[in-house]
């Protein structure tokens, strides 16, 4: 392979890949002697058994996991895999549909014979594209030769773009586009984000290491000894909702029981990220999650801290939050009256410390148990495996694609990016079986959504009564 002169991470896929895509060819050599009957018979049976072996291998690969024994049922959020793929359940996915997603995609992924090929169209924010590709490469190393051949388009930007209203006709054929989040009015397919393998730009380690560090950080301060305020630290400039949140900060004239801080990443970078270690931020009883321009990567770090997460009503969702419930895993915050809603949540928690502690710990437990890397890979596998079943065409490697290889990607990386790739490299296949994907069951999803809605209504009622009593002076 020939590398580009510019060895920056954004150009890592600028390779001459023609040599990797050439197939080997067998050549027959002529002979002056006529073959004997024994030779002809031998050759006939030899190629007959070769053909049978290849056919059986193809059939086995096409029926991936049809008969494999499986472990326990996958966590609740896996059920939404079926829902995300619902728009194509009846029609299947054609090549034209996939090509329709190219308009905004950053790259095309082809997995064929257990290898990962990428055709890159444009650069993403920072190294999102690079570490998403790296994550896909680790998946096929974690489950080698297990995924069927497939082809997909990936968009690394924040907000979903495939709007449901544009595809109301059941036969309209929306483009299947993968990204990190979606919303109720979009059809984008939700996939784990790049930071599970590290976010070098702001010194966030791969998820396996982060979980270990936060687990240790949780032990440093007992829950009831933590600061009894709601804590948030982040970039307020990415969205008006976050700027609005800062109005709830503690001042000499008002007290909303919050401690809110603006994060200056340029300053943090110059000072060596000494004030941004995630494991050092598990010191408050309550931590606030609020979206940025779209869903925020900070969600999983906030919710894994044992603190009761005060979850400002979101517009977007990622792949795992759909398995979590208000009052069980987090406390919902009204996005239209943030300050008063936060005040009530903290007051309630400080007056019901055992319940608040249980909510915080149950939310953290969900993250530590159901979002460990083994299950992140299982989610990726099940999603891609179910997606591949819908394909109505045979995937193929584009002429301009490059095969991803660990040594090539690590060799082109520098600094923290290189370190995080080395730290998140899967060096051996997973020996355990996949968790069992729950079947598609709309009834179960409706019941789950009803539980969520009832919990939200309960908090709204409590909050309304609290402020009415405050106004009356009770």
Automatic annotation (TrEMBL):
Keywords tagged on the record: Membrane, Transmembrane, Transmembrane helix
Keyword Flavoprotein: no
Segments crossing the lipid bilayer: 35-54
Residue intervals of the Glycosyl transferase CAP10 domain: 146-394
Cited InterPro entries: CAP10, O-Glucosyltr/Glycosyltrsf_90
Keyword set includes Ribosomal protein: no
Pfam (any one): Glyco_transf_90
Protein name: Protein O-glucosyltransferase 1-like isoform X1
Organism, scientific name: Cucurbita maxima
């Amino acid at each position: 392979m020939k590398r580009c002169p510019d060895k920056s991470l954004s150009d890592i896929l600028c390779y001459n890949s023609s040599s990797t895509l050439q197939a080997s060819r067998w050549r027959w050599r002529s002979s002056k002697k006529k073959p004997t009957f024994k030779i002809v018979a031998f050759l006939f049976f030899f190629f007959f058994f070769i053909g049978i072996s290849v056919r059986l291998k193809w059939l086995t690969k096409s029926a991936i996991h049809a008969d494999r024994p499986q472990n326990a049922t996958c966590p609740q959020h896996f059920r939404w895999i079926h829902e995300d793929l619902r728009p194509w359940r009846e029609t299947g996915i054609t090549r034209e549909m996939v090509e329709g997603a190219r308009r905004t995609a950053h790259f095309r992924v082809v997995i064929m014979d257990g290898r990962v090929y990428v055709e890159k169209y444009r650069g993403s924010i920072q190294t999102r594209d690079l570490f998403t590709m790296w994550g896909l490469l680790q998946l096929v190393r974690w489950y080698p030769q297990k995924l069927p051949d497939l082809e997909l388009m990936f968009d690394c930007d924040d907000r979903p773009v495939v709007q449901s209203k544009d595809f109301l006709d059941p036969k309209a054929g929306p483009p299947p586009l993968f990204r990190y989040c979606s919303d109720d009015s979009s059809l984008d397919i939700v996939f784990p984000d790049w930071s599970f393998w590290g976010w070098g730009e702001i010194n966030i380690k791969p998820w396996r290491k982060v979980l270990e560090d936060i687990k240790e950080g949780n032990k440093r301060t007992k829950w009831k000894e933590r600061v009894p305020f709601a804590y948030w630290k982040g970039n307020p400039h990415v969205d008006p909702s976050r700027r609005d949140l800062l109005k709830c900060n503690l001042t000499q004239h008002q007290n909303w029981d919050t401690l809110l801080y603006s994060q200056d990443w340029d300053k943090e970078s110059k000072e060596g990220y000494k004030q941004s270690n995630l494991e050092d931020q598990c010191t408050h009883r309550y931590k606030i999650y609020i979206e940025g321009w779209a869903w925020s990567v900070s969600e999983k770090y906030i919710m894994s801290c044992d603190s009761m997460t005060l979850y400002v009503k979101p517009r977007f969702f990622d792949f795992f939050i759909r398995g979590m419930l208000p009052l069980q895993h987090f406390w919902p915050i009204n996005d239209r009256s943030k300050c008063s809603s936060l005040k009530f949540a903290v007051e309630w928690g400080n007056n019901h410390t055992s319940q608040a502690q249980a909510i915080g710990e149950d939310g953290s437990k969900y993250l530590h148990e159901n979002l460990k890397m083994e299950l992140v890979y299982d989610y990726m596998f099940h999603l891609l495996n179910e997606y591949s079943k819908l394909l109505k065409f045979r995937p193929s490697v584009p002429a301009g694609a490059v095969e991803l290889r660990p040594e090539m990607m690590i060799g082109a990386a520098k600094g923290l990016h290189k370190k995080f790739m080395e730290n998140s490299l899967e060096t051996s296949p997973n020996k355990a079986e996949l968790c069992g994907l729950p079947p598609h069951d709309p009834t179960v999803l409706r019941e789950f959504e009803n539980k969520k809605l009832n919990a939200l209504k309960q908090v709204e009622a409590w909050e309304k009564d609290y402020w009415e009593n405050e106004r009356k002076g009770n």
